[in-house]
Design brief:
Blueprint: E1 2-3, E2 7-11, H1 17-24, H2 27-32, H3 41-59, E3 63-68, E4 74-81, E5 90-95, H4 104-119, E6 126-129, H5 134-142, E7 146-152, E8 158-163
Antiparallel strand pairs: 1-2, 2-3, 3-4, 4-5, 6-8, 7-8
Helix pairs in contact: 1-3
Length: 165
């Protein structure tokens, strides 16, 4: 488990399916990350079992849940993923709507980036973001990434490409 000033950052387990279902069906998630077709709690469990958990085993890292220390509420996800169509590991995050604009994304992303660079020795770390998602771009800039160009997503969508170097 990692932690920041206000957050615990923990592995996602199948007991998190309800939270994951809510997050992945929030408007911000669907608009900025995409619709992963998680329509039931069972779909969320399957996604955790078949997509999230295997990444920990294969790569030694993945996506994690952010848990607010003070309340115990699950507020979002943050993590690292090695996507087949990207040359380097990329960092990402998502928050439930009630927890946006409170600095949680920056705080958690900084912890994960430090972990990637210092513990996992991953460098560069990339991030991809839609051109209109200015809030996410600001988070990436705050943690030290800079836009180095553009890339095309696996569905053909053009995205801004950020990197640690």
């Amino acid at each position: 488990m990692l932690k920041s000033k206000r957050l615990f950052i923990e592995e996602i387990v199948t007991d998190d399916a309800s939270f994951f279902y809510e997050l992945m069906n929030s408007p911000g998630y669907i608009n900025n990350i995409g619709d992963r077709k998680i329509k039931t709690i069972r779909d969320a469990e399957d996604y955790i079992i078949n997509k999230i958990r295997p990444h920990y085993i294969k790569h030694g890292y993945g996506f994690y849940k952010m848990v607010e220390q003070a309340s115990g509420f699950k507020v979002g996800t943050v993590g690292l993923v090695k996507r087949p169509h990207l040359k380097h590991t990329d960092i990402g995050y998502a928050l439930l709507p009630n927890f946006e604009k409170r600095g949680f994304a920056t705080e958690a992303a900084q912890v994960i980036l430090d972990y990637a660079l210092n513990e996992l020795k991953l460098n560069p770390v990339w991030a991809v973001v839609t051109f209109d998602n200015k809030a996410s771009q600001r988070v990436l800039e705050r943690i030290g990434l800079t836009q180095i160009g553009t890339t095309t997503w696996d569905d053909g969508e053009a995205l801004a490409l950020f990197s640690t170097k």
